[in-house]
Amino acid sequence: MTIPDRRPSAGGTRLGRALAWTLGLLLAFAVVPAAVGPTPARADNPIVQHVYTADPAPLVHDGRVYLYTGHDEDGSTYFTMKDWRVWSSADMVNWTDHGSPLSLATFSWASADAWAGQAVQRGGRFYWYVPVKNRATGRMAIGVAVSDSPTGPFRDALGHPLVENGEIDPTVFIDDDGQAYLYWGNPNLWYVKLNADMTSYSGSPTRIPLTTAGFGTRTGDPNRPTLYEEGPWVYKRNGLYYLVFAAKCCSEFIAYSTAPGPTGPWTYRGTVMPTQGGSFTNHPGIVDFKGNSYFFYHNGALPGGGGFTRSVAVERFSYNADGTIPTIGMTNAGAPQIGTLDPYVRQEAETIAWGSGIETEPAGGGMDVGWIDNGDYIKVKGVAFGPGASSFTARVASGSGGGTVELRLGSPNGTLVGRCGVPPTGGWQTWTSVTCPVSGATGTQDLYLRFTGGSGYLFNVDWWRFAPATS
C-alpha cells in the first residue's frame, strides 16, 4: 500500500533523525561545566524532544503546570519563529503536547517573529502577551491574545498592538492588590500598569532606570553599562519582588535583581544560571508548584540544536534561607517526578517524558502521536501499575500496513509485558481500538511504548489505557 506524503508541517518536525539520540545528548552536555556534577544515567531534559522549543513561560493552574513556549523551526540560522506551543504536566516529567493554539496568523497585523511571550490568568480567562513585528511599521510590538482555556485556541484580543516601541519580551505580573504590570524591553526595560481588562493600560510606558546598582556592571560595551539584556520575568515571594533576566549577550547568562515594590528601586543580586549549554541566548521562567520551586530555561541540547534551534529544560531548586536564589546548573536529569502516573485512566499518547523519532499532529480537536517508524518509542515515567495490569488498549489509525505496539519496562529494549497489533484502518485519521493481554506489569515502572513494523510510517496513536488485574 502506498503511504501518503506526510511531510512535516508546523505541527511537528523530525529534529535530525540521522543523529542518534544518545550520542547527541552526550555531545550536547559535554559543554556543561564540571561544577554541575555527575548526573544519573537517565535523561528527562530537555522536556520536549520532537520539536525545538524556546523562551519558556510557566503558569500554574488547576493542579498542572502549563508551559508556553516559542517554536524554533528546523535548520534555522536566525530566530525563525512562526507560532507558539503549549505543554502541561501534573508531575513535572510527563508533558502533554497541546499543539499550537497561537501563531502569527492569529494577528492579522503581524508579519514575522513569533518571539518570547508569557500567558497569565485573570477572571477565568487567559491572556497571552507576545512580541511580533508590526507589518505596518516594521517595528516589534506587543500583542495580546485571549482564551477561555489555558490550552486555547487563542484569538487576538484587540486587532492591533497593545503597545509598540520597537522592543520585545513581555512579561506580566499581577500584584496582591490586583494591579497588573506589563514589563518588556531590549535594550531598555519598560513597564506600564495594565487595567483590569488586561487589554488596555493606564498612563504611558515608563522606562526603568538601568543603573549598575540595580542591574550589575557590564564591561566592554559603553552602550550597555549594565548586565540587563532581555527576557524579564517578574514575581513576588514573601513580600519581595524579583526580576530575573537574561544578562550580557552573548553568550547570555541568567541574573536577577530584587526590589521592595513592583517598580523598584531594584538591587542587583547576582547570577542564577551561568553561561553554559549550546545556545548563546537563555530565557528564565520561575514558578512554585506542589511545594517546590522550579526554574525553566532553554539550551541547545538536542541533536541539531544550537542558538537558533533551542530546547526548553527545567530544574528544581530551593531558595536560600535569606530569600536569595542559588546558582543553578543545567542538567540532563531534569526535575524529579512528583507522584506517579495512573495507567488505569485514559492517557493521551502525546503525554511523554521522552520520545525518540515520533512527532505529534492535530487530530479531532486534540493531538495524536504520528510519523512513527520502526524502532521509534515513547517513554512514560513513573507508571503506577500496583498489583498488576491485565490488558492494554490503544486508539490507533493507519493509512499503511500497520505494525505493533510493544509494551516494555525500564528501557526501549526492557522487559516485554505485552504486544498489541495495529491493523490497517484505511486512513491516518480513521480510528479503531486495539486490545492485548499484559503480563508482568506490576509496581511503579517507566513504561516504553516501542513501535515496530515494516518500512515507512506505520500508524498513529491517539490515547492508551491499561486495565487492572482482578483477584
Explain how this protein is built:
With 471 residues, this protein is mainly β. 3% of the residues lie in helices and 46% in strands. The protein has two helices and 34 strands. The chain has helices at residues 21-28, 212-215; strands at 52-61, 64-72, 81-89, 95-97, 102-103, 110-112, 118-122, 125-134, 140-147, 155-156, 163-164, 171-174, 180-184, 190-194, 201-207, 228-237, 240-247, 253-259, 267-273, 285-289, 292-299, 311-317, 347-348, 351-352, 354-356, 359-363, 366-370, 377-386, 389-398, 403-409, 415-422, 427-437, 443-452, 460-468. Strand 17 (240-247) and strand 18 (253-259) form a beta hairpin. The longest helix has 8 residues, at 21-28. The chain starts with 20 loop residues before the first helix and ends with a strand.
Brief overview:
It contains 2 helices and 34 strands. The radius of gyration is 23 Å and the shape is globular. Helices cover 3% and strands 46% of the residues.
Low-confidence stretches: 1-14, 16-41
DSSP helix fraction:
under 10%
Radius of gyration: 23 Å
Rough shape? globular
Distance between the termini: 44 Å
Please describe the biggest sheet, giving its number of strands, its sense, and whether it closes into a barrel. 6 strands, antiparallel
Structure annotation, total helices: 2
Overall pLDDT metric: 92
Beta strands, count? 34
Please state roughly what percent of the residues sit in beta strands, choosing from under 5%, 5-15%, 15-25%, 25-35%, 35-45% or over 45%: over 45%
Class inferred from helices and paired strands: mainly beta
